[in-house]
Amino acid sequence: MARDLSALQKQYNSSASAQRRGPGGPGGPRGHMGGMGGKSSLKNARKTITRILGYLAKYKLRIFVVLLCMLANTLASLCGSYLLAPIINKLTLAVTGEEQPMSNIERLADNIISRFTGAVNTAVRSEMMSYILTVIVIFAVVYLVGILTSYIQARLMLSISQKTIESLRNDLFSKLQRLPIRYFDSNPTGEIMSRFTNDIDNIDMMINNSLTSIISGTVSLIGTFVFMITTNWLLTLVTVVFIPIFTFGGSAIAKASSKYYSGQQAALGAINGYTEETVTGQKVVKVFNHEDTCVEEFRLLNQDMRNKQLRAQFWGSAMGPIMGNTSQISYGVTIGVGGILMVLGHLSTGALTVFANYSKQFSMPINNISQQTATIFAALAGAERVFEVMDKEPEVADSENALDCPIRGDVVLKDVTFGYNPDKTVLKHISLYAKPGQKIAFVGSTGAGKTTVTNLLNRFYDISDGEILIDGRNIKEYKRAFLRRNIAMVLQDTHLFTGTVKDNIRYGRLDATDEEIVAAAKTASAHSFIMRLEHGYDTVLESDGANLSQGQRQLLNIARAALSNAPILVLDEATSSVDTRTERHIEHGMDRLMKNRTTFVIAHRLSTVRNANAIMVLENGEIIERGDHDDLLAQKGRYYELYTGVKELD
């Protein structure tokens, strides 16, 4: 049965899903942190803009050159328009014989043109023809400057935007590497990936297109205003009267649309998260015939996405028509007043023509900026989501005196109590020790806390009560990276990266030689099957090693751990998902791997822990029995029930 929309939204956009879906049940890691959120409106647009500008500030010189180019381009456009005034006045004089009233700046433009006309006039009989040819040449030069500066501006702005986005992606990815495992346990992979794709792409569009339009529009607006007021202050006043209308309309639409763009980005993240999980778990979907359910649930999320996009795009697209029609009204009123002034003899034909053009140009930047509303709000919503990840608390930094001295593998847990959530205790007063080279096994029902013990050894999570000691020192005294280099893990869920078999084994120690890689593979009993692959150690693995069997993937995982040479080894149900024959093959590799290492084994099949030095039986977060295999069988307690099958594992 398909879940309703509210349930799906909670699962992918709130902490409620984390509590339901976390490993280890309701008390698992996902239960601690909230999801990545689906807030309905921008939280702090000003702060977000400031942070984006902080990235752009690295390219101050280039931005300064861009501004100069924009200024030159605007001046070229405005001067080109202004040259129309004297030529129209000249033509009017030639046709009607009536002198046109000209402003000082019109006379200045006419004088400039007339100076060049003398040279042209020697080759052209008609004075009017020479005047027109002069204007054409000046037009060509002016607009050539405009074209050149526009090209330079576009190239520089493209470079700035791409370098900014590169820095943003690098910072986001670097931050992800510093976040604790708790964060990844609490948030769907698709939601995290959405930051790198949709959200950053929207920021890129805003910087490369919208930011250019805003700056260019502002420069054009100021320049046009200056030229307008030098042409006729009264018509300028008429045009400026409409600015409050533009401002009020734009702010009202912006306020109404901002919340929908954040909702749109959150809905997109939910779709990405659902799609990623469904594709990854496609075998499970088909095994349980849930195709129709998945289609229905995706339809609900997609419908929600459509509804939010409709609202966001409606308000975003409404900005253009409203501003455009308002500018047309402004243009009509300005021309009407200008016509009256011309009839009264206070304005020349050329000046009115030029001012009409400026009136259009004055509203054009406002319209262009308003049309960027959709991109801007989508980008700001995306930027908030990106910065939300960047603002998450990283793993606790190592102390200044953190150690990186050699580790032998003497491990002690003293009265350790821990819970992923403050209100849910997973481990209760756990105490145990492991001498160097010993093998300690954990058995018990699902959710008893076995995996949690190993998570604490690696400091994936830090405890608040009790102590974990390695070689007599609290693990918090060691550098975190050093500690993890000395603890190798073979997990039930293997993960292989895209690359060769050799590269995947070398992941255990990046400076390992090819000979050491082969030796590690032999230790893990993986060498023989690797040599049967098409290209041996150079065989390329893709899609998490989909062309290998589960047992082969696990053998590579064991080889990776063997290469690390870590004195402490953690085996977390490493054979639970393979058949019995493959299990024996893997066990041979693990036996060689465990030699001379302190080993912690979490086992589902109890036959794999018979030779452990000590077996800890956990139930409800407590050690209820401990001893070796024979001792525990003699006690005829919980371990006896599990081993003999009197009572099966939950």
What features would you describe in this structure?
The radius of gyration is 36 Å and the shape is elongated. It has a six-stranded mixed beta sheet, sandwiched between helices. It has a four-stranded antiparallel beta sheet with strand order 2-1-4-5, with helices on one face. Residues 14-40 and 120-125 have low confidence and may be disordered. The protein has 24 helices and twelve strands. The relative contact order is 0.09. The protein has 650 residues and is α/β, with parallel strands linked by helices. α1 (5-13) packs across α2. The two termini are 26 Å apart. 63% of the residues lie in helices and 9% in strands.
Q: Can you summarize this structure?
A:
It is found in: Cell membrane. The protein is an alpha/beta fold and about 650 residues long.
Identify the quaternary structure here. single chain
User: Cα distance, first to last residue?
Assistant: 26 Å
Our estimate of the beta-strand percent is 5-15%
Helix content: 55-70%
Helix run count: 24
Shape assignment: elongated
Largest sheet: 6 strands, mixed
Q: What structural class results from the helix and strand content?
A: alpha/beta
How would you state the average pLDDT, rounded? 79
Strand order of the largest sheet: 6-9-10-3-11-12
Radius of gyration, CA atoms, in whole angstroms:
36 Å
How many strand elements? 12
Low-confidence stretches: 14-40, 120-125
